[in-house]
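S., here's the first fold you wanted:
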Amino acid sequence: MADLRSQLRTGIIAGIKRGWRSFLWISRIVIPVSLLTTLLVWSGLLEHLSFLFSPMMNFINLPFQAAIPIISGMLTNLYVAIAAMTAMPFSVEQMTLIAVFTLICHNLITEGIIQHKSGINIVKITLIRIAAATLTVLAVSLFLGDTSEPVTAPAVPVAAEPLPTVMKEWAVDLLVLLARILGIITAVMVVLELSESLGWTERAVRFLRPLMRVLGLSEQTATLWVTSGGFGLMYGGAITIDKVRKGILRKDELERLHLSIGINHSMVEDPALFLVAGVNPFWLWVPKLITAIIAVHLYRAIRYLRDRLSH
């Protein structure tokens, strides 16, 4: 019994220390990028540049007005994208396509940096996410009829808030986000430390083995996929970099993981945000998961063929 208490105490202390180090690492990314993107949105630059993306909107069967929520989401986060989307009278079908695109392809700057520092080139994963979002929207649009009708009613103009007010709101939102990151990362790190010290990790890996095979991922990445897939790249990225430093994962295992979680992450929170807009839950959870599975297996097939041809 005393030995168990010692293991629990050691695991908790070690997990808290790992969680704090990971929190400091991710904060150095989140804070400056969050500030820059907030200023970008406040300046109105996104709206002035949205017309440049009209050809892209036409290609994915959406009116040019959809560029505002989509580009906002790509550069910032889903909250900004949803705010922009609900400010215009899009049909449910159009909102569905916007949701599908932004669920895969959002917050590219912050999440791209996190993925870059934890194992995959930022340009590579960003282009893959944009391509995955585009192809998934094209596939989903086949089931929704004509979604390219222009939005006829104008959006209600909203005066820009004073910069001090925007900075105050940004600071409050950032503190809430950082507190959430610290709490989740610390909890996950403590669980991982306890799992390793108490021998639970092997059992968890065996339980998740069938799912990892379907996803095309290594068993070693099971806990990383659960963290990033369930809660998001900000939380999973810090834990992934911890594993990378220990040299636990091979390069191909890491790249497959990043492909999967880059396309399909934060399955708990992000899709639920669009439910209030009346989007069918099926389109919020299923397409991006299928796209992630296809992308990983395609990566494995290409790698296999390349290895065969090189020998």
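And the second, which I think is the more interesting of the pair:
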Amino acid sequence: MDEAAARQEIQELPSARGCTYVLPASDFALGLAAGAGPPGDYQVILKLGVTEREIARLCDAVENALAAGPLDPDEIRERAGKLVRNLGEAGKKKGVTTTLPVALGMLQSQGRIRRIPVNGRLDQQRYRYAAWNLQPLDLPAEEIARELARRYLAWTAPASLDEFRWFSGLGVKAAKAAFAALDLSWVGDRAMPAEDRDEFERYRAPAEPRYALVSSLDGLTLLRRSFTELLNPAGSILPFLPAGKSRIADPPSHLIIDRGRVCGLWEFDARSNSIAWGQFGRKDPALAAEVARTEAFIRDELGDARSFSLDSPRSREPRIEALRAL
């Protein structure tokens, strides 16, 4: 993956809902079109007195600075000089200390710059920025929504209209129109590409367990946010839920999957270079073997396994303790 990112075969880009996804080159232009629009902090800085013209000038200055080669944010700030405005205490309270992050976000969403992980790895948040010239797809909004729906259903069908609405950020009318423009087959309130129906009907789950330790951001749950529905047995997650809740959209830890169902949770304990895990239901030696294999891969190849960008060995200690107590 790191090598593919270096060759620009894949790229982290703002896409659906303005969120960052890793996309293949064939979908760079569609991804940018799906996430078109200023970053969320844009309206915040306008309320703090920053003008649209001011941000436009800063964007041009950033592009000029990157003409000679990639730079990190500090180097860009130095080149742009006084065009980067410090927003003081008012901005700090809103989580925006200067105007530079907003300009960088706008330039990325427009395909004018791209970010490069400083050490080549995608699992961290330190970047340099490079000039780019990728044009988002120039298509009507309804066609962009249709193409996004086509890909979404290819990844995770059968899926409901509400699940697609969450992923895409579209309203009810636009999401319904996107589904209506496709050749779909329905299973209850869930849709799939009609061409997949025969394969779906023929499929039979394996009789024996097939375990996999996957990320908490795995598409099995991330694309639908229906984590609780996948639990086996159904009530097994209750000890991990906040008080008074019987359902959550996102998993509290990484997932142990068996034939499409969540049968346990895991975390990587960086202190002991081991996996802390808990299985719901009957223990199985086959799962222990899969845990050992994954543990060796993380220890020898990755060094750590984070659940999201701000996760750290220290912040996950309470989750590790809970898993070890299972």
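Why I say that: Residues 285-302 form the longest helix (18 residues). The radius of gyration is 22 Å.

Talk tomorrow,
H.
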